[in-house]
Amino acid sequence: MPTKKMSVQMLLLQFLSLTSSISGMMVTYQGLGLVTNTESPVVVVLSGSMEPAFQRGDVLFLTNPSQDRYMTGDIIVYKVPGAEVPIVHRVLETHDACAVEPLSCASTQRLLTKGDNNPVDDIELYEGLEWLERKHVVGKVRGFLPFIGYITIAMNDIPQLKYALLGGLAFLSLIGRE
Amino acid sequence: MARTKSQAVFKGRTPSPSPSDTDRPAGPLSIVVSPEDRDVVKVNNASLTELKNACDDAVKRYLSRPDLFKQIYLHTDVRLGLGWLSVFTAGGTALYGYKVDFEKSKPVVWAGLALYIFLTLVQTLYAYFIEGETVFVGKRKTFSKRIITERITLSSRTLPIKSTSPLLATLSSPLSVLSPSNSSTSASQSTSSVSTSSLSPSLTTPAYSLSLSYVRSTNGGKSLLAKGKTRSAQPYTAFFDEQGTMDQERFERWVGELVEQGMDGKTA
């Protein structure tokens, strides 16, 4: 039946327009992660431990070049195994072998961090480790946008908002045409 | 007269039938549609996209009628296939990247990304070069003395406003152009007038241009019976009234005439 084939096709086409826009965004995010060499190239600040530099709700842009040597004063995002969320703090001390092996020293660096707004350094946050290694570092902060991250925070705290947004997007793309 | 002449010129060949032969299958104008069968089509007549989509849909509905052509869904199927394939590669890559450690997942994610970009590129190139402006591709097989296969392709585009006086173009909205109407009897709701199908070089209202190519053959496509290519344009005001309701009968009549011209082998 011509009409039956048309309606199955039309349904597939409409779903395709929705899913292809979502998949395009996912691919862009992953591609960005590959290019910047970090699993989360864009993160949102959740706590106030870096005030007054970063407030809760700021969006941070990270890169993690493998040959880069991190220095005292750099702001990095790290995730210790066993921790739920990554933490953004400033590097307080670095210990490396760069004086002896300048070419391969970046990957064997050991770091100590502290939040600007915290009274003590982060040793207690390291879940038993005495120092951070490069493999725990998600990336170094290269830039930021203020306040935009509140959307993500709101969607995480109020799940209904997330579903409402997704539902609204799905509805819009299903009733429209390309 | 013409037949004996061609018989004398081409000795060993049976003369090819003239277009007005009884071999010619029924054209769309001979199919009558009762008004109750139609759904009312109403669009936002300020949006050129909606106007064009409504016209394209009307062409597809009209020519897919049971006695007319059977639509070939090749372009749609290719677009669907490539599109869903790219969605699945994107989804699979994202899932893999989520499950596996970042450093270990890098080669696979690179591969997935490359595949996705390749598929998207192929989709874009296909849509631009091969599909182009095609709206409808149809085929019909009729059996009179022998099996006659027809194939018709329609493509359409919107001709935008192109006026010598820029002031005129900005002042006139698509439906406010009135020109002396010719004797065509339009449906009672239509208040706008029809301009003739020949296009003046300076357009003051957007128009819908429909091009058509038609081939009629037999013997499994080996002997060509007729071939036609036509194109015509009408301003959107001819088919849509001020509320945006589409005058489907007039539109179908215009399309039917164009198809019959193509079937008769005219080249425009």
From TrEMBL, chain A:
CDD domains, per the entry? S26_SPase_I
EC category name? hydrolase
The domain of life is: Eukaryota
Give the signal peptide as a residue range, or say none if absent.
1-21
Name used for this protein in its record: Signal peptidase complex catalytic subunit SEC11
Whether RNA-binding counts among this entry's keywords is no
For this UniProt entry, what's an example GO CC term? Answer: signal peptidase complex
PANTHER family, A to Z: SIGNAL PEPTIDASE COMPLEX CATALYTIC SUBUNIT SEC11
Task: Fill in the subunit field for this protein.
Answer: Component of the signal peptidase complex (SPC) composed of a catalytic subunit SEC11 and three accessory subunits SPC1, SPC2 and SPC3. The complex induces a local thinning of the ER membrane which is used to measure the length of the signal peptide (SP) h-region of protein substrates. This ensures the selectivity of the complex towards h-regions shorter than 18-20 amino acids. SPC associates with the translocon complex.
Q: Tell me, in a sentence or two, what this protein's role is.
A: Catalytic component of the signal peptidase complex (SPC) which catalyzes the cleavage of N-terminal signal sequences from nascent proteins as they are translocated into the lumen of the endoplasmic reticulum. Specifically cleaves N-terminal signal peptides that contain a hydrophobic alpha-helix (h-region) shorter than 18-20 amino acids.
Hey, which family's this protein in? Answer: Belongs to the peptidase S26B family.
| Entry membrane topology | Single-pass type II membrane protein
* Record organism: Crucibulum laeve
Q: Cite a single GO BP annotation.
A: signal peptide processing
Q: Which UniProt keywords apply?
A: Endoplasmic reticulum, Hydrolase, Membrane, Protease, Signal, Signal-anchor, Transmembrane, Transmembrane helix
Q: Where is the protein localized? A: Endoplasmic reticulum membrane
Does Secreted count among this protein's keywords? no
Reactions accelerated catalytically: Cleavage of hydrophobic, N-terminal signal or leader sequences from secreted and periplasmic proteins
Q: What is its main location?
A: endoplasmic reticulum
Q: What is the lineage of its organism?
A: Eukaryota, Fungi, Dikarya, Basidiomycota, Agaricomycotina
What GO molecular-function term can you cite, just one? Answer: signal peptidase activity
The EC number(s) given in the record are: 3.4.21.89
PROSITE patterns of this UniProt entry? SPASE_I_1
UniProtKB/TrEMBL annotation, chain B:
* Ranges where the record places region Disordered: 1-29, 175-203
Q: Where are the transmembrane segments?
A: 80-98, 110-130
* Superkingdom of origin organism: Eukaryota
As for membrane topology, the entry says:
Multi-pass membrane protein
Per the record, the major location class is endoplasmic reticulum
Where does this protein reside within or beyond the cell? Endoplasmic reticulum membrane
Keyword set, alphabetical order:
Endoplasmic reticulum, Membrane, Transmembrane, Transmembrane helix
Q: Which residues form a coiled coil?
A: none
Which InterPro entries does this chain map to? Spc2/SPCS2
GO terms in the biological process aspect are: protein targeting to ER; signal peptide processing
- GO (cellular component) term, any one: signal peptidase complex
Q: What family is it from?
A: Belongs to the SPCS2 family.
* PANTHER family according to UniProt: MICROSOMAL SIGNAL PEPTIDASE 25 KDA SUBUNIT, SIGNAL PEPTIDASE COMPLEX SUBUNIT 2
Please give the function described in this protein's UniProt entry.
Answer: Component of the signal peptidase complex (SPC) which catalyzes the cleavage of N-terminal signal sequences from nascent proteins as they are translocated into the lumen of the endoplasmic reticulum. Enhances the enzymatic activity of SPC and facilitates the interactions between different components of the translocation site.
Q: What protein name applies here? A: Signal peptidase complex subunit 2
Query: What is the native source organism of this protein?
Result: Crucibulum laeve
